[in-house]
Amino acid sequence: MKVYHFNQQGIRSRQEDSLYIAADQSLFVVCDGVGGGNSGAIASELTTDSISRNYKTFNAKPVDLIKYLILIANKELQLKCETIPIKDSSTTIALILIHEKDAYVTHIGDSKIFYISKSKGEWWVSKDHSFVQELYEAGILESEYEMKTHPMRSRITQAISNDHPIVADSIKIHHIPNITADDVFILCTDGVMEKLTSEGMVELFSDKKTNIEETFESNGYYKSDGTYISGYYKTISDNTNHNNWSTNGNYNPYSSQAGYRAPDYSNQANNYGQGNIIYTGPQGGQYYINSNGNKVYVPKRRGW
Predict the structure, then answer these.
(1) Do 104 and 97 meet the contact criterion of CB atoms below 8 Å apart?
(2) 3-state DSSP call for residue 206?
(3) N or C end of the chain: which has fewer CB within 10 A?
(4) Residue 202: its pLDDT value, please?
(5) Dihedral of CA 168/171/177/180: which sign?
(6) Per-residue pLDDT tens for 195-249?
(7) What torsion do the CA atoms of 273, 279, 283, 284 make, to the nearest 10 degrees?
């Protein structure tokens, strides 16, 4: 598996994101701390540290193992906050466990997991546990632009928290069987998505000629702290060292138009969604022409 991760503080005074990648590349975790002062950073760092320490100590089926790791991390956060003491210390999490040829994914909060299957020509992204996601599903908000600019856009409805600990039944785990070569997984915090739509993220990772790191840095995507891990499933491990990389995902069916470039939210709302023209090929496949003049085929999307 080729694995890249990226972690950037942005213009914030502190980094509240944390990530963990198991040495054998079987477990990937991204966390985004929530809370005042340094309480968010404490929650995200403690969660990734707890998972890294406990991962190999519990022999169980993948679903049970994931729940165990999250519940233990939440309990350790509660105990830590009692000794400091501190209140309102919470974190999101996006997690992928690779077991044999299968993947098991879960998330809590608004950190995201993307899955791109090039062989099937489709992709999905997990649903946020957030207030604006609930407004969207209720039909009160009608576009991704409205969600990204809503005054309550940062309000999440689930988290690993010392005040409101997560319960086992609320940890939903999605099983992806028989992952194949060229499948792509992305975990990322919400800071990564500040100027990207879900379709825009898939576009970046579907275009082999795109330098992901340069794209994020040169376009200033991180006003907030941003972290992601991307994994390209391969039968042979790539040992290349990429020290600056990371990702996440959640299914938000914002727009019927696939493959458009991320809008510039500094402009007025009616500029939202403008971008590349989508063409239909002779066999029905859709594609667009990227900035290098090359065809990039648009995968079909389905939801989780």
Answers:
(1) yes
(2) helix
(3) C
(4) 86
(5) negative
(6) 778 888 888 777 666 666 665 554 554 445 456 566 554 322 222 222 222 233 3
(7) 30
